[in-house]
Amino acid sequence: MPIWLLPPALYLLNAALVARRTVADGYDGVGFVLALQRLDLERFQPQPPGYPLFVALGRLVQALAVPPAVALAVVGALLLGAGVGAAAAAVRRGAGAAAGGLVAVLRERAPLSYALAGATLSDAAGLGAPLLAAGVWARRGAPSAGWGGVLLGAAI
């Protein structure tokens, strides 16, 4: 299995295992779950900036008959896992397989990353998208620079 696929696979497995117990995490989590039903930026449901994109991605997952809280957790797990995987792949290219594997394992198993990857908050997506952008930039070249910029802009 390529190193960049390991973190997203583990986070998705975690999200699937705890799906029955996934609930909205506090005020912001409830706002995101409510926004899946009705996005109301006038009432700060959810709070901007960037959150409308998180909600739109959550709606795409929810369209697959996934409960709202789980849909948001899946979006966070996918983006954070992809970001960690991209960072690990970039380190692997620059410093070798052992360093890349170490980044993948330590970043993926970090307590905060692990907790956020199963939450209904946007923090996992907000960390994953810049990591993904950095991983894309590490590939070098004009297309990588452009796509990295798009990812960073989406994160903001």
Radius of gyration, CA atoms, in whole angstroms: 16 Å
Which spans have pLDDT < 50 for at least 5 consecutive residues?
none
Question: What is the residue-mean pLDDT, rounded to a whole number?
Answer: 82
- Helix proportion range: over 70%
> Which structural class do you get from the secondary structure elements?
mainly alpha
How many beta-strand elements?
0
Give a description of the structure:
The protein is built from eight helices and no strands. It is 72% helix and 0% strand. It has 156 residues and is an all-alpha fold. The mean pLDDT is 82.
Features:
single chain; 156 residues; mainly alpha; 8 helices; 72% helix
